[in-house]
Amino acid sequence: MAMVEIRDVRKWYEGGFEALKGVTLDIEEGEILALLGPNGAGKTTLISAICGITRPSAGEIRVGGHDVVSDYRRARALVGLVPQEINLEPFTKVADSVRFSRGLFGKPHDPAAIERILRKLSLWDKRDSKTMELSGGMKRRVLIAKALAHDPRVLFLDEPTAGVDVELRRDMWRIVEELKADGVTIILTTHYIEEAEAIADRVGVINKGEILLVEEKAGLMARMGQKELRIDLVTPVETLPEALAAHELELERDGRVLVYRYETGSGRSGIGRLMGEIAAAGLQVSDVHTAQDSLEDIFVNLVAGQDHSDMEGRAA
């Protein structure tokens, strides 16, 4: 059984705006799912529905087998949420803030548990500091500590590294990996594509309230990514020889570079035949190197494809 089960979930508001349009998704125990989407795609609405902050207009959501509407308390007890906004009581000490969050879920007083969480997040030496005295990055760590205070089995991170520097972002990735090792299921929304590329097991793309794709990261990049072969020429050319027209090559850098793109999952790249035909055409090659589409390229293409389809639908 999946840890989080989402079935045909819809959310609409007065006036007719539909933020979620029939979302169906299973999230497995102990996995890291990165949910990508542009602003207004429905990421935060979906998380809010799972966490019980907003009620779905239709559909069903279960966490650990508990319905988030009819069995709200048990479902919510399994969930930790780190919101986008930093909203902490400024005069409260770090340890007291985390202790209070634990108490909200009816958990017994446990100093050892609080110490363990604070040490994991490099906050132990700040335990007696007021939150107003912390840097932005440290405040984000406090938010995570509060979300973990009641030992949840599912952790939602809504843009957790927004506004933090690269070094701290990578430190946060390490923390997420450690939580996964403890068996925690993690759902991450992010604008930083490299974040998903670095730590996610699966990637989901949401746009305009619809899930466009959910797939294992490696498989997605292999299936949808393109490779680019760049061939440096000894002598530049003004135009491509007619014999090479079938390969749909592009000329760059004033005719000094030939660019050849091919699908990574196509089985046959055609590179061998291409190189032979380049030599037969009298072109001398000085260097060859390849690059592969990033997850960001795939994401942009998916969203752009949906936008183009929507425009065609409206035009029809």
UniProtKB/TrEMBL annotation:
Residues 4-233 form the ABC transporter domain. Coiled coil: none annotated. One of its GO terms (molecular function) is ATP hydrolysis activity. Transmembrane segments: none annotated. Keywords: ATP-binding, Nucleotide-binding, Transport. InterPro entries: AAA+_ATPase, ABC_transporter-like_ATP-bd, ABC_transporter-like_CS, ABC_transporter_ATP-binding, P-loop_NTPase. The keyword Transport applies. SMART domains: AAA. It holds the Pfam family ABC_tran. CDD domains: ABC_DR_subfamily_A. This is Multidrug ABC transporter ATP-binding protein. It comes from Pseudoponticoccus marisrubri.
